[in-house]
Hints:
CATH superfamily of the domain at 335-458 and 509-673: Glycosidases
Strand order of the largest sheet: 11-12-15-14-13-16-17
CATH topology of the domain at 335-458 and 509-673: TIM Barrel
Number of helices: 17
Helix content: 25-40%
Shape: globular
Strand content: 15-25%
Amino acid sequence: MNYFHSVDQRINRAVAHGPSSKARPWLVAGCLALAAAQAVAQEHVVALDQGWSFRQAGTDTWHPATVPGEVHTDLLRNGLIPDPYRDFNADSVQWVERAAWEYRCTIHADAALLRNGQVDLVFKGLDTFAGVYLNDSLLGRTDNMFRTWTWPVKARLRPGANELRVTFPSAVAEGDERRKAYGIQLPADSDPSGTSPYVRKAAYQFGWDFAPRLVGCGIWQPVELHAWNGATLTAMLLDQELRGDSLRVRVRAGMKGDAATAGYLFLDGVPAGSAAREADHLAFSLAVHRDQAWWPLGSGPQRMHRLRVEAVDRQGRTLCAMERAVGFRSVQLDQEPDSIGRPFTFVINGTPTFMKGANVVPPDLFPSRAGDPAWVALVRHARRAHMNMLRVWAGGIYPPDAFFQACDTAGILVWQDVMCANLVPAEGDFLDGLLQEVRGQGERLSAHPSLALFCGNNELEVAWNNWGWQARYGLHGADSARVIDGNHALWKELLPAELGRSGVPYTWTSPLSNWGHAPGLRNGDLHYWGVWHGDEPLSAYARNVGRFVSEYGFQSWPDSTLLARYIHPGDLHLGSGALRWRQRSYKTDAPIWKAIRQELGTEPATLGAFISASQAVQAKACQLAIEAHLGARPRCMGTLPWQLNDCWPGPSWSLVDYGGRWKPAMEVVERLYRP
């Protein structure tokens, strides 16, 4: 218990110094005034998180808004819609996705702000299509939920009050227009509107087999003014390689502005190198002995260091600086053919390492409502269960910096999917925006020792080859070639080119083979869904062990005390319409009932008994699968059940329910993962 308490304190400290706090400027992606005594270091950040209001476009009444936030949470806070999580309310608020919305606030530009040479307006996340206006002048339009958007506004700011306004047309309506322009209906099995493939927005919000459809919009990430002079640092990328007993580290600091001509690197406060400016960056190299390496949980200590870059002008004056907490480690993905087929083995600091973890979905359907604390709570659950890897699934969102900082501290590696859970129109402006998105995410995450893998998509290759999409969506001939050739070029060529600078391995798809095919057991990572989707018994887990099993699982219902918070008491009984509605899987509860009869030999007569039995069979499924995977080492080198957490209160494959309560399956995971 003392060890866990100590790690919790370290995670709390790491998050307390994360980038979203006004008291933690040294981690912000930009040059901040790190020491008041450095008169030349001028940059500062003004948070624009107060005084916002919103309205439905075409109406007269403005209502108070919270930024960061979403339109659904603002409507709920103002009593304009019922709680979408309660009863059948998700259906009654579907009108929100077809409406247009507008947000506004006032920026007060004083003399101190306007004395700066540059002032940038930075939106760290706009969901999704938006027009941004300053004093009724259009700054630009956005079309990607996952990008940071920056506009220079010094010349447009007036002394005193300035109106900032953001308009949001319907993402579904915009998706309709983009579908027409593309001319082909792309597969969208979980989305009856068929628009989600054309929108760079979290796919799970359009409906999934563990969540209802709630498509909204809003300013879901912080908004800031960045004021600076001469130069500003934009990113710090690390590329690390193990050579003998030394970790060779290449540091690349991105830069804007013309005044900086050189830079200095400091490691834990000690000078570690200097470099002349190269176009838009500073480049440094250093070597660290292997005994200072960062290790995943269970393999060694999580040593962290401070890495600082200072940019200077021709007179040697410091213009700006960036400081990051980093860990030094090498990570490789061994996929060299062997006598069995092709392995999928993570090699950390030269050591092949078995991955014990789980898949992660966003902690809420409304991302701003589940901020840093909710993401850090996932890391606490994982660390308490002795996990050393979490896979961030492609249908959600890229986690916040606080999640990666907590993983750095706790020793949990992150498999990060690119947010591609649908085939996309991989051409033109859509493709350019997606590549800029990925470039920005690679720059943001590169310095985290926990980042272990980028993956180009989730299940899209096996879906194209095995799920009958060509027939169902009429994708034949030239249309078929246009779709799959464009997506193959994206996954196999363009994404690795963008993400190569991040210094971590890349795999173009997960999995490579479908779970029903023998090659999937011998090659690469495997999503084994013979149990649940294939109606196979739980015992099939022992016969279907891949080289790395990155998805598998079995559903259960959450505790009735959680359900009682969201379902009318009169509907809390077996067979109620409310329970049938809350089950989002096309399989319904049928696999659960079948497993209860086969594994437990019972027929629950009450809701409470059914919930307990569902959790019991889920726990048994996890036990049989994990024992088979662990027993097959080193042929099998990883096990990641689907899924660690929930985004809303309903039945799913989660190990931890929406209220944060461990299901019995999580207790099994903790016991089997224990060193």
